[in-house]
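Teaching assistant here, posting this on the class forum so everyone can see the example we discussed in section. The complex has two components, and the goal was to see what a joint structure prediction looks like when all of them are supplied at once.
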Amino acid sequence: MVNKNELENINRISGTDVKKCMKCGKCSGRCPAFTEMDIKPHQFVSYLAQGKLDKLLNSKAIWNCLSCMACVERCPRGVAPANVIEAVRDTVARMQGKDGISANDIPPIVEELLPQQLLVSAFRKYKK
Amino acid sequence: MQRIGVFICHCGTNIAATVDVERVTEAVKKEPYVVFAQNYQYMCSENGQQLIKTAIRENKLTGVVVCSCSPRMHEATFRKTAEEAGLNPYLVEIANIREQCSWIHKDIEEATEKAIVLARTAIAKLTLNKPLIAGETGVTKRALIIGGGIAGIQAALDIADAGYEVDIVEKRPTIGGRMAQLDKTFPTLDCAACILTPKMVDCAQNEKINMFTYSEIEEVKGFVGNFKVKIRKKARYVDEKKCTGCGVCMANCPSKKGLNEFNMDLNNRPAIYIPFAQAIPNVAVIDPEQCLKLKTGKCGLCQMKCGAGAIDYTQKDEIVEREYGAIVVATGFRPIKLDNFNEYGYADNKDVITSLELERLMNAAGPTKGTLLRPSDLTHPKVITFIQCVGSRDVSGCGKPYCSKICCMYTAKHAMLIREKYPDTEVHVFYIDVRTPGKNYDEFYRRAVEQYNVDYIKGMVGKVYNENGKLMVQGSNLLDNEQITIPSDLVVLATAIEPDPSVRDIATKLTISIDTNNFLTEAHAKLKPVECATAGVFLAGVCQGPKDVPETVSQASAAASKVIGLLAKDKLKGNPCVSHCDENTCIGCSQCEQVCPYGAITYEEKEFRIGGGKTEKRRVACVNPAVCQGCGACTVTCPSGAMDIHGFSFEQINKEIEAICKR
């Protein structure tokens, strides 16, 4: 189900140019949620660059990213991995027929350890 | 009546594949004054040039247009060709139908059309060309080298060897530069001092070489072959001729708080000091910021103890004026400041150091006398982690966008030396890419891995933090898709290098161009790598771009050979396409003088007849044709239209525009 539109969407929403990545791994080196993530920050960038939409959409890590933006802050190339992750998160939400998430959706998906910051970033709405 | 010949080059298929050269040939024949037109496969070849020469003679041509590549490539060739056939070389015009036409067009129709227009334009301009004769100037047979590091030293030795006088101006109290601070040099691991100090001594002993240490360039005037330079000799407060370098003053100086720059501020030095044992000249210098006598008037111990009577607290800066035929800029580099890289904890942890600091910590003349001890508690570090690309290849604005080029090799060197000297030490290297092109370079790096068991980790470090006295280095191991944390005793940052900041001021004084990273710009990236756009100025070393010692030495010798080639000439032919002033139109406003980047314009008061037997005195611009580079800044600034350029006059340019617009 490779969908060019979805890929373009993720690229557009993230507002980052993944081709600028020089594959140094500083994002993943800095990430405080690294161990929790099935796909690591640098892989989000790499998968997007390669157009591996399935890998992105099936990632559980989009719900583990803290949105702390440390990867964005530290990237020497001006790439923003956290923005890619957020773009994937929003795309997934939208593909489920939703526009962002509503407050009522939270109790079932929330884990106790889920950081507040993540919730805030997931509330962002993208209307088509 | 003018008789113009037009020659159209195919440049193999470079032009002929996109431009219909036959059609161009036919078209130009219809242009006014054109009596001859011909196309040929390679105009620049011997045969092609012969065609031009024959045509000039047989058709009595008064001007030649060559439709070919950029004038930067072959204008000189065709001018010479014309000259050999008895035509003034400035009666040759180039129509660039390659770079500006065939290479950028795909459509043959369009490209041919444009080639015809370009040819027509050149013909139109040529009808107004006048024969020009280049003036000649003498050459001062002495070279100036700015910067006394390995680049400056090598260039000076080579130039002196050819029999010319050389002055080295070095802002620090000794020559030697960065290389003097290094412990060992890759890829052969010779001790840096062992190979550098003989060259330093050669400089001191060579009677052709004159050193101005602790000196800076104050002002540069003049032009190729005839530079006039003012050098500021900063006050050392020590008589260079009397000081024997015995060091008694240093031992007795009560002020010991000055940071030792030579040791990268890792320890202190007295207020009066000799930077290092092999300093050239081996003469003390007083740091006025630290000297009690100079600051408070109380002390004078060094003066009392000096057996040679060399101390002179009243010394003042001195300005020396010297003349030169050529200048080599070799101002070198420094490691960047790490203020933007908090994640590595450089400012907060004494045991996070830069690679240049490590050089000093491993050097026998360094603060630890060559025993590797970490700065915080002077113990042997057991786990050492190197981080590469700190500030290099960084386009985020925190660091430098370029690769600093030397770090991969020196990090491999450091890792290897440490494992050799202290085999019980664990050494890790975080890298993004290992870049080791160069003779025996990759083998060198592989030796670190295979023979010395250095642990190379593909990935970047995200942060370094202190936990119970250990430096925790957290980073990616990309090949294992892991995040790892290495508890380390010492962290070494392969810090990016940048041009020494003094280079900006030097570039302004020499009117040479500088890029966004403060590297000096060479005249041509491939074919003129040591020349500058400003004639008579040459580049050597890291001031032009990151490079290691072998490359620096090669470039310095290349610059030296260019200098020697210049100084070997008794006369220099100038460029006759320079600016001139119509004194009858000049209103004396001085605007041209202000915009001239070469200082070629001066104003003079002259007497002019105004009719009725009367005269008046007016200020008018005068151009020194030897200094003018023909840039044209004055011609577009001049409000009265008095300034114009030979060979590129307003009239000629108007004629070109007319030809382009004519359909």
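For the discussion questions: The longest helix of chain B spans residues 108-126. Chain B has five domains: 4-126, 142-233+318-332+507-567, 248-305, 334-498, 579-646. Think about how each of these relates to the inputs above.
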